[in-house]
Amino acid sequence: MTNLPFRAHYLFPAALASVLFLGSLRIVLDNLQNSHHTCAFFRPLSGGYRVIRPPIRVSDEETIKDGCNIFEGKWVQGNGSYPLYTEESCPLLVKQVTCQKNGRPDSSYQKWKWQPDGCNLPRFNALKLLEILRDKRLMFVGDSVQRSMFDSMVCLVQSVIPEGKKSLRRDPPRKIFRAEEYNASIEFYWAPFLVESISDHATNHTVMKRLVRLDSISNHSKQWEGVDILVYESYVWWMYKPTINATFGDLEHVEEYNVTIAYKRAMETWGKWIETSINSHSQKVFFMTMSPTHLWSWEWKNGDDGNCFGESEPIQRPYWGTGSNLDIMGIVKDVLGKLRVDVRLLNITQLSEYRKDGHASVYGERKGKLLTKEQRSDPKNYADCIHWCLPGIPDTWNEILYAVLLQDYRVS
Ligand SMILES: *[C@@H]1O[C@H](CO)[C@@H](O)[C@H](O)[C@H]1NC(C)=O
Ligand SMILES: *[C@@H]1O[C@H](CO)[C@@H](O)[C@H](O)[C@H]1NC(C)=O
Ligand SMILES: *[C@@H]1O[C@H](CO)[C@@H](O)[C@H](O)[C@H]1NC(C)=O
Ligand SMILES: *[C@@H]1O[C@H](CO)[C@@H](O)[C@H](O)[C@H]1NC(C)=O
Ligand SMILES: *[C@@H]1O[C@H](CO)[C@@H](O)[C@H](O)[C@H]1NC(C)=O
Ligand SMILES: *[C@@H]1O[C@H](CO)[C@@H](O)[C@H](O)[C@H]1NC(C)=O
Ligand SMILES: *[C@@H]1O[C@H](CO)[C@@H](O)[C@H](O)[C@H]1NC(C)=O
């Protein structure tokens, strides 16, 4: 434990900052490998009558027992029923996450199933999800981690939609997947701090230099208005240093804020918007807790000085890494607890903490390019232990979101 970085839980190594912005860069870089999907826009609706559709049947097996905490449980062998899609079956996947194609030798990280202690999650059913999303917009808002949840959701549903009836397009800071026959969209909105910042440009922003406008959100929020289902997340961009430059009020007056204080102010700004703008009868709001990082292997392997590189098994005992800051978790709890609008928590941190094996590691990208052979052989400096491979852990987050939406549907 000798080279334990001082206050490790605040500092994400500078070298890793470069993996953060890929997310946004990618919006231009993975230029529409899927452009052949984009032709189906503005298809006229056939006929002038409204089709009456039978409601989705939610079987007893798909019903989550009252009182079951789906975020507590363990990872079990999926026995061949996972992954739910493959790298090949989802051509929309960006190369940052296709770890197999990028040379990852093991694939067992794709084959685990999240098993809550007190009940079962319903099996993901793309047709049912699309039916739930009929005439609706589902939007994921946040950073590149949140974008992988969007990518995952698109992969989970796209294979059941015929060619020509689906499209993916970029309209920065949004990415929009459309399922035409359902008049449904699944969207991603880039806002790494939720509030406004100099990192909001979807394709051109600095990573090392950060400046957050703690009380400004309207540039973003006007594009969130009226969205039926919103899923928010913001964490890792805050955690690069223990303090962050920010403004509150006067845009000219920049101050260094303690990150926890800045995060709280930003969450309150967001909360105020939620309270004044969300209609609980017609809209649903979710907040995702932090996606864990696995930057220091001494945390789960005494004396080791590596990172997530080379890990191929989940942790099978109680574990919480120092990267998941408890002050920040407390702020999320406080702010959501005080809101007069129902925002549901997707508390995925603990279940993802176990998955030191799920990260992109050296089988991802840096600055928009796959790692070179030399970089790959230097995992200490180049492994990405923030982002996840797909198929992988973000699929489980979506299985949980699906489970919750399905329960809502059952009781509505
Ligand atoms: C896989 O098989 C094992 C042993 O038969 C069983 O304990 C486990 O529950 C199964 N997992 C799933 C996801 O069905
Ligand atoms: C399509 O969905 C949008 C919401 O995403 C809704 O406003 C619109 O009314 C829907 N169109 C039809 C024809 O139902
Ligand atoms: C918000 O948008 C306005 C108008 O486009 C722009 O002038 C302003 O700089 C933006 N605010 C931030 C914090 O980016
Ligand atoms: C990116 O932003 C910087 C600073 O705002 C600007 O100087 C530069 O020209 C921009 N680059 C592109 C490609 O737009
Ligand atoms: C805040 O900005 C100042 C001036 O640009 C800079 O010297 C300082 O390093 C910044 N602080 C942080 C935490 O980034
Ligand atoms: C920031 O605030 C938190 C909570 O008040 C405190 O624990 C932490 O030590 C502070 N950090 C710095 C760098 O002052
Ligand atoms: C999320 O779950 C963890 C334990 O799994 C708990 O410590 C934490 O307080 C929860 N977060 C919130 C905001 O409730």
Write a structural description.
The longest helix has 19 residues, at 259-277. It contains 11 helices and 17 strands. It has helices at 14-20, 22-29, 126-132, 144-158, 218-221, 259-277, 326-338, 349-353, 373-376, 379-382, 393-411, and strands spanning 73-77, 112-116, 137-142, 166-171, 174-179, 184-190, 196-197, 212-213, 229-232, 243-247, 255-258, 284-288, 343-346, 359-361, 365-366, 369-370, 384-388. With 412 residues, it is of the alpha/beta class. It is globular. The site of one 2-acetamido-2-deoxy-beta-D-glucopyranose has 5 residues, from loops.
Keyphrases for this structure?
single chain, 412 residues, alpha/beta, seven-stranded mixed beta sheet, four-stranded mixed beta sheet, 11 helices, 17 strands, 25% helix, globular, binds 2-acetamido-2-deoxy-beta-D-glucopyranose, O-acetyltransferase activity
Bound molecules: 2-acetamido-2-deoxy-beta-D-glucopyranose
N-to-C series of helices and strands? HHEEHEHEEEEEHEEEHEHEHEEEHHEH
First-to-last CA distance? 53 Å
Number of helical stretches of at least 4 residues:
11
| Low-confidence sequence ranges | 1-11, 21-48
How much strand content do the residues show?
15-25%
Structural class: alpha/beta
Number of domains: 1
Using only C-alpha atoms, the radius of gyration works out to: 21 Å
Q: What's the overall geometry? A: globular
Protein name: Trichome birefringence-like N-terminal domain-containing protein
Keywords: Membrane, Signal-anchor, Transmembrane, Transmembrane helix
GO molecular function, one term: O-acetyltransferase activity
Pfam families: PC-Esterase, PMR5N
